[in-house]
Amino acid sequence: MTKVNLAGAAAIALAALTVAACGKAAPSTSSSSSQSSQSNAAPSATSALKPTTPAPSGEAGKITWATYRDVGTIDPIQAFDYPENTVITTLCDSLQRQAPDGSIGPGLATLTHPDDKTLVITLKDGPTFWDGKPVTADDVLFSLKRAADPKGGGFYPAVFTRVQSMAKTSDKVVTVKLKQPDFWLDGELSQMPGVVLEQAYGVSRGRKLGTPQGGLMCSGPFKVGSWKAGSTLNVVRNESYWDAANKAKVAEIDFRGVPDDASMTSGFLTGGIDGSYPQGLSTIDQLRAAKDKVTVSKGPSFASDAIVISSLKGALGDVRVRQALSLAIDRKAYIQNVYHGDAQLPRTLANPGTWGYGKDVFQADWDKRPDPAPDVAKAKQLIQQAGANGKTITLGMTSEVQQLATAANAVRSAGEAIGLKVKFKAVSAQNFINFFTDPKARKGIDGFPTVNYPDYADPAAFYNTIVMPDGSQNYDAFDDPQITKAMNDARSAADPAQRARFVAQAGDRIMQQLPWIPMAAINTVLITSSKLTGAPVSFAFMGGPWANLLGSTGNGS
Amino acid sequence: MGSFVARRAAMLVAALLVSSFVIFGSLDLAPGDPLSTLTGGRTLPAEAVTQLRAQYHLDDPFLVRYVDWLGNAVLHGDLGTSIAFRGSVTSVIGARAAVTMGLVAYAGLLIVLFGVGLGVVSGLRRGALDTSIVASTSVLAAVPSFVAAIVLLSIFSVNLGWFPALGAGEGFADRIVHLTLPAIALALSAMAIVVRVTRVAVRTEMGREHVQTAVSRGIPYALMVRRHVLRNAAIPVTTVVGITITSLIALSAVVERAFSLDGLGAALVQAALSKDFAVVQGISLVFVAAFVVANVLVDLLYAVLDPRVAIGSRAT
What we know:
Chain A is α+β, with helices and mostly antiparallel strands. Helix content of chain A is about 30%, strand content about 20%. Classes of the chains: A alpha+beta, B mainly alpha.
């Protein structure tokens, strides 16, 4: 009997070896796919993408949600990446609330501006923490001060740079005085910096807050169930959620880190995983095909695929060379290759999904701008004018991440088509991060590809990091007076439409100056078991409530 | 016996000391920044970076950090703080050790049962059975565990739905079900090697003079096999089984990742990629200790199996 088993297993193993070989080759998007055949591949209209999925008809039991790695912390001020944000948005409420379409409205509180330099935060009646205690102005003040404290170990003190003082002015009110008008702060308070924690709990836990030992005390639709360091994090429904209309329909969620694309895929196919917002899953087409088990949806996103210009000292220091390079890139082919069509041609550096306010203004700006189209003749002309023919640019890249490698190759073929020499500085996938964090790693390179996003739906929140002289991603002191002025005007503009006009103006100028070269405006992808529905298919999962919208489809469960 | 234990304990301490220094040093030399793991590639504001570097002592000289770590580990049993998990390394290890130990034990059991069992059968019975065992083990020995994992997953989990694809399960029975495919994936190629070594050992013993004599004296076959063949063949088999099972501890990383198990191996890989020094250090030392202990057990087994072998000396 054993012999049969073993021999059988051997045969299966052999057969599967070939299967595995095929399976590997298929998703890796043959980078040489025909470029001309997909003329209608990348949609340029923005209206087609809906940020929501059909509303659920019933409750669901325990589900498993996959993130690309295990959650490290649930301390909001240390959340800066997909796994942490995905979980904390289920546990906590912010002062403001991000809706699936990116618009921002009252959350735990209502924000008002009696004058340009004063922000009044008035708590709603009724919000309570998981332990039943009411959310008070003291808790708000504690949480804001904690987030603003440069020694607090958090990532968000820069958000509060224009804050003069914060004080409790009544049981329900915190008043923030500003050094200069700052309407970006409102948006930030819809995200991690605006999360309100219970003061008494936070003080008692100190540095352990947000760790498996320290836990958390928030007011959100779910509360922490069980969690061990570096392993599955379990959250359970908050049965006494203060916002009864938005009470969760799912009883429990296990958040599991699944770093491997193959296990993610088999997890979905076997029912071991019920949902995920994946970032570039190579097996997405396989899951799309399994329609009876899995629903794959796409919607707007905050994320932009772009080439960072990290040095203005080389050939790319000349704006004409940046423009020429941008003109020569075949983005349609790139989008088809990398995103299988799930991205738009970028008419601005910021993704249309970031229009959380002033939508008409941004839409009008988008409509009047052309789709970026390759124009090699014009690009060559610009190179001639700049006298850059034959000059070398060096790109940081890694060949281990398909999207980054394809982007670098797209830039290389564009550069070579217009008479530039393009060299690569290739590093391992793990070390790619150093281009962002280590000036030494950036030495000798002119740029590198990235996918990047702001914390809330405002193009300015993205541009801010790139074009402002103190921007965290402004690597070589890019400073364009017109852009800086438009951005500062936007920051001080109380009226959203007016603010949008300034931001759009900055965005137009950014497309002309190209501090970064946009590659694609990518979509959010949501995968759920076909028994689940209701989750937003937008970037709201990073900053707003999402899991409480999930529920059963009512069929097949 | 006492001196044997003392000698081995001293060896263990020395091994741990040397390897901790080597691991610490090589992590220090490797490029990459542990802070990057906190942000998933986004750029942190400069003040936050400064604050974090100070908090985790990332800018202290190498030797200072190593001595600090060593002092805490020896004096307080504190293996340091994981940057990625914001928790103590001991808690990370504690939460994950059971899964890896279960997986390795399960795989080890499979290796002993099927590896030795089939090897003995194959060694005693010439013919079609033997040939097919030899043929299939040649193939299996060459299948790396990540391939085995993919194959098992796609057949028994995705297509047939007999076993879960992810996770380690809760409670004993559930855990067994969850760990079955991972244990098979982990054991398969090692098992094939054990089969072949056992087969050769049995065959060699069968050809030896005292066995031939026993046969000619009319000693019952079963008794002859048990007393004269298996007992003598056990020494090389124990060596190979010992080595393969200890090597499973390191290999478990691959399988844990493929089946998304929260085990030590998967955590070690993740931590090494993100340069989470303390976790790499802690888990590596657990592995080193497990290696040493497993070797001690093998040595003890020699003495049990063969009275001529003195405790602590190498059997051949």
